[in-house]
Amino acid sequence: MKVFQLIERHVEEVLLVVILSTMVIAIFLQIVMRFVLGTSLGWSEELARYSFIYLVFIGISYGVKQEKHIKIDTIISFLTEKKQVILHLIVYGLFLLFAVFIIIYGGAMSMEIFRLGQVTPGLGIKMGYVYMAAPLGMVLTTLRISQKMKQEFEHYLYARPYKLNGEKNVQEVHNEQ
């Protein structure tokens, strides 16, 4: 159970670090090859580009988890706490619909690209894997939105303080001391 919780808490962070590291290494190799050896790697720029695509879509999920997406909170600050929660639930609901839309249609498009058999010119991998970045990232996003909606709903019903992914809230920390 603890292993599952550890994975659930850090899946985006691990994926983002691995993908970003892959990008940096690929670009570094390209620079070394080009300026030191006078030749270039045909696949490194492509790997960096496709890694960036995955980075963006997994980053959306991480942004939801950390509540770091851009939002205008001027109006929200004038609302009562209950109305703020209701507005958050509506916003998360709309975001969830968008994510499900991307999962369905992005997945269908990926399957079509797989069916057509397109491959990338430099790496020689199937383009369907590149197109899968959107639906896979949105699956993670859907899970994170669902968690946030559950937290908001529990806060609305029971006035429970927020906890991010099993972290202790302020009251629990003070009770331990």
TrEMBL record:
InterPro entries: DctQ, TRAP_DctQ. Its main location: membrane. Keywords: Cell inner membrane, Cell membrane, Membrane, Transmembrane, Transmembrane helix, Transport. One of its GO terms (cellular component) is plasma membrane. Pfam families: DctQ. The keyword RNA-binding does not apply. The keyword Cell membrane applies. It comes from the Bacteria. Residues 23-152 form the Tripartite ATP-independent periplasmic transporters DctQ component domain. GO terms for biological process: C4-dicarboxylate transport. One of its GO terms (molecular function) is transmembrane transporter activity. It is a multi-pass membrane protein. The chain crosses the membrane at residues 14-35, 47-64, 85-108, 128-146. It is found in: Cell inner membrane. Belongs to the TRAP transporter small permease family. This is Tripartite ATP-independent periplasmic transporters DctQ component domain-containing protein. It comes from Alkalicoccobacillus plakortidis.
